[in-house]
Specification:
Elements lengths: L2 E3 L51 E13 L4 E12 L3 E7 L4 E8 L13 E4 L4 E10 L4 E11 L6 E8 L5 E8 L20 E8 L4 E4 L3 E6 L5 E5 L12 E4 L2 E6 L5 E6 L8 H17 L11
Parallel strand pairs: 1-17, 2-11
Antiparallel strand pairs: 2-3, 3-8, 4-7, 5-8, 6-7, 9-10, 10-15, 11-14, 12-15, 13-14, 16-17
Bound molecules: 2-acetamido-2-deoxy-beta-D-glucopyranose (6 copies).
Protein name: Aminopeptidase N-like N-terminal domain-containing protein
Family: Belongs to the peptidase M1 family.
Organism: Eleginops maclovinus
Length: about 300
């Protein structure tokens, strides 16, 4: 059975079109990253001068673990990205914006660390890129796992991984955290190859307090206790998709669910007090899906858009 998570958040969804500033000015001449002699990391210089990422490292699968905290309004996380290396190189260059990187390592296919030490991470803030230096050459034709730990505060505004609040009828303010990644804000939530042509599968895990729920593109496979009274939701692996389609929400919303004629589950989430107002939205969503199922023989699945 296909699960369709359709999120209708009655929230100020401001689309700040054009707010992304990319520094287009005077991009220095192309300087391909390649073999570099292992030297003291003090003397490393950023290996890549273009806005677009090098093409010779392809992300295949992201294992993303997130631990958002709606009290401290910050999050920590780790991402393990399986990469396909198509040219010998000592460098992995990818996007990251406003994230504190605490640990970066590279492992081979056998999950053996290439280096005993935490790898040097260089930053190119104006291009929103980081470069991770491996003293051992990554070999063309091999696959590796890039592992990075990071932390940040929730973003202010409506891009990246940001916090929102809503007020209950008793005047209490509640906080939730959600994502808006289009076109280039996934890099504010986790280090990634944040260009639409780099499509990969995603396996997302989110830690939360029991009084909250978490939602992402895919249904939850299981929820486990992870100590400190926290639960971890483990979401199913996604189809191959671009970073900007990844989405998640941590909130105390409730849901109503209905099934289409072919058994596709449609759920609508809303703040507990707005839940009664969602029945029309649910009816429309179910009808819409019935329509699409009629015109396409296979069940459709689309990522929850927030
Ligand atoms: C780093 O660069 C400085 C000057 O640019 C040089 O004196 C020093 O020897 C270099 N260190 C290493 C380890 O290459
Ligand atoms: C890979 O390396 C070869 C030889 O150094 C070079 O000719 C080629 O352009 C490189 N390809 C990419 C995608 O960087
Ligand atoms: C968030 O941080 C506070 C302390 O600042 C802690 O008491 C709480 O358990 C944390 N929540 C989560 C979900 O980790
Ligand atoms: C960095 O992460 C690796 C992989 O999980 C771990 O083995 C290592 O202990 C970590 N290092 C630090 C300094 O946190
Ligand atoms: C992984 O382990 C196998 C068996 O131990 C070995 O043959 C292979 O060379 C290893 N691969 C890498 C990339 O180290
Ligand atoms: C990744 O997504 C593709 C479809 O886009 C799917 O065929 C493949 O099985 C997925 N990979 C994993 C590991 O689930």
């Amino acid at each position: 059975m296909v699960f369709v998570g359709l999120l209708v958040l009655s929230l100020f969804h401001l689309s700040l079109v054009g707010s992304h500033q990319s520094s287009q000015h005077a991009s220095s001449p192309p300087q391909p990253a390649g073999e570099q002699p292992p030297e003291g990391s003090d003397n490393l210089s950023f290996p890549w001068s273009r806005l677009r990422l090098p093409r010779y490292i392809i992300p295949l699968h992201y294992h993303l673990h997130l631990h958002p905290n709606l009290t401290s309004l910050s999050f920590t996380g780790s991402v393990q990205i399986q990469i396909d290396v198509q040219n010998n190189t000592n460098w992995v260059v990818l996007h990251s914006k406003g994230l504190k990187i605490s640990n970066a390592t590279i492992l081979d296919q056998n999950l053996t660390h290439l280096s005993d030490q935490v790898l040097p991470v260089l930053h190119h803030p104006s291009h929103e890129q980081i470069g991770i230096f491996s003293p051992r050459v990554l070999s063309s034709g091999q696959k590796y796992f890039l592992y990075i730990e990071f932390a940040a505060d929730f973003a202010e505004g409506f891009h990246g991984f940001y916090k929102s609040t809503y007020r209950t009828s008793t005047g209490e303010t509640r906080t939730l955290a959600s994502t808006h990644f289009e076109p280039t804000s996934a890099r504010m939530a986790f280090p990634c190859f944040d260009e639409p042509s780099f499509k990969a599968n995603y396996s997302v895990r989110i830690k939360r307090n029991p009084e909250y729920i978490s939602l992402s593109n895919m249904p939850i496979v299981k929820t486990v206790e992870v100590g400190d009274g926290l639960l971890e939701d483990q979401f199913d692996v996604s189809v191959k998709m671009s970073t900007y389609l990844v989405a998640f929400v941590i909130c105390d919303f409730k849901s109503v669910t209905a099934a289409t004629s072919s058994g596709v589950q449609v759920s609508i989430y809303a703040s507990p007090e707005k839940l009664q107002q969602t029945s029309y939205a649910l009816e429309v969503a179910v009808k819409m899906l019935d329509f699409y199922e009629d015109i396409s023989t296979s069940a459709i699945l689309f990522p929850s858009k927030i």
